[in-house]
Amino acid sequence: MKTLPLTVIALAAIASSCSRGNSEHLASVNPAYIDTTIAPGHDFYNRINKGWIEANPLTAEHARYGQFDVINDTCEARVRSLVEGLGSTDPQPGTVAHKVWTVYSLAMDTARRNTEGAKPILADLKKIEDTPREGMEDLFIWMHGNYASPFFGAGPMEDMANSTKYAMYVSGARLGMGDRDYYLLDDERNTAVRNAYKTLIATQMQNAGYSKEDADRITGNVMKIETAIARDTKTREESRDIVAMYNPCTIAQVKAEYPAVNWDRFFVETMGIQTPDTIIVTDPKTVATGSKLISTLTDREIKDYYLWDYVSQAASKLSDNFTQASFEFNKVMSGVQELRPLWKRSLGATEGALGEAIGQLYVEKYFPQSSKDYMLGLVENLRTALGKHIDNLDWMSDSTKTRAQEKLAAFTVKIGYPDKWKDYSSMEIDPSLSYYENMHNASMWHQRETYSKWGKPVDRTEWGMTPQTVNAYYNPLANEIVFPAAILQAPFFDPNASDAENYGGIGVVIGHEMTHGFDDQGRNFDANGNMTNWWTPEDLAKFEEKTKGLIAQFDEVEVLPGLKANGTYTLGENIADQGGLRVAMTAFLDSQEKKGVDINSPEANIDGFSPAQVFYMNYANLWATNIRPEEIRSLTTGDVHSLGINRVNVTLRNIAPFFEAFGITESDPMFRPESERVIIW
């Protein structure tokens, strides 16, 4: 399925507790990692994390390594044990266990894959090459029907205006390098990435059996086409404008605006559905470019573009020379120095094919009901706290507050795992076939599953992540917050940790996801997940004025010499980080008051730290990370999240209780005068 914008707003991070009074001890925060030579008001991130950073140096396989990766390592080891354990059970053909074991085994069998080389895709490449001029439309349809998406992407997704049903979306073509700047800017960094990409294309095409001369020609044609598409692709900042993505068109309009595509054939033959009456075009300019290219390029240029589209999606399932070429490109993009171990790559591919099947095994062994019950209770504490914050906002009108409270009350909460698991019984996995053929069959199964949704009511029980994913997300189209089982580990959540640590960990993450429902994107959707403007013009003006200040705070941060952070692109996540901190602290204070704990009393201290200090210490602890300069550049270009150090130091500079907890005054570098602070939630 072609990826379409805005299915979920993800966090990339995420605990209440049982009260033990003054018997609580630090569990998630390691005091040995605190660098007491750095004052809290000078650099809070490095005060808390310098010891961890020194104790966890980057290894060659990592472009970055942080607390998320520590948890992910634990999850990977667990999943590896579960998957490899299936082999000893002699699973019967046709069972899900046999499918999981077969995919993993084939992925691990590099000897077989190296013997096969490019053979698994040669027939398809020949089909592309041998297509005559009169068959180019057939070839275009065939490409889209085989899990490729040249010139544009299409597929059903929840209708943003009526999220109970599916709408058909058409979006611009995928760019091989991801971001338009890599194609259009001529500075040293973008030129280096662009040259590495050209090398990648040429190398992979030679790996697929083409001569150097042909590979060079293909590279030139691919760059010509992708650069043309990049020129008309939305900028990173423009891509955050959700309303601008919703452009309903009649099928007659689509046929008139984008005439190079036989739309009736396209929908019938690639998706097995009748042509929709209405289509949502997310980026009309880019789709128009794709249509123009189809009608103006030569057959040779189009075929070369198709060849690369096919080879690039197949490369990770072929022989080691394909894998090595992709890695050489990744080295330039992220600075990583060593391939991830084969078992990790094989495990990731298996999870991509049969993720929920593995997730079911994971939760049965590693996610007790007590953790789910605990999280549900904590979410309600955070919901109550956010409700208080909404009531006390000075920039939101009473009428909008009423709608906001309705939306908050309507949040659906998903914890741990789906109530209904995917049925993989119809997925064809055959050990006699190559690894590529089996993975292609799995991809086609997922594509058919997506297309089969057309004409049916939206299934709100579906999950956008597997239970073993270390992450969480807010989905505005379902007005739901989702916390997979794997994120519920220290330092985010630990049943043995103090209340302060857990609220500063998973509590902040819950608040983060909740406030996504009201950030610059989430505010466009109502309690039912439908895109509608429920804010007054005055509220919106005040909100946007505040966000200008937050954008400026991040824009001024130099992440590398000559490279500034992008406050506009990261705005939604920055709002949610601040909102999560403020709301979680309110929920923490409420929880302690209910237990009769005075957090300002010396008796409430936890291993010598006040509960408020511990709360902020564990928040900072979540973002401890080692990272390569190349990865900093890559993330600043393509990630909607700020770097970990800025999620701590820039965000906390707006929060008065943080200053109070550590006695930070105007003489400290981290102090921000009250008149310059931005408080949204």
Q: Which terms would index this structure?
A:
2 domains, Neutral endopeptidase, domain 2, four-stranded mixed beta sheet, 12 strands, Collagenase (Catalytic Domain), alpha+beta, 681 residues, disordered N terminus, 26 helices
Could you characterize the architecture of this molecule?
- The chain is an alpha+beta fold and about 675 residues long.
- The chain has 2 domains: about 325 residues, Collagenase (Catalytic Domain) (3-Layer(aba) Sandwich), CATH 3.40.390.10; about 160 residues, Neutral endopeptidase , domain2 (Neutral endopeptidase, domain 2, Orthogonal Bundle), CATH 1.10.1380.
- Helix content is about 55%, strand content about 10%.
- The chain is built from 26 helices and 12 strands.
- The strands form 4 sheets. It has a 4-stranded mixed β-sheet with strand order 1-8-9-7, with helices on one face.
- The chain is globular.
- The N terminus is likely disordered.
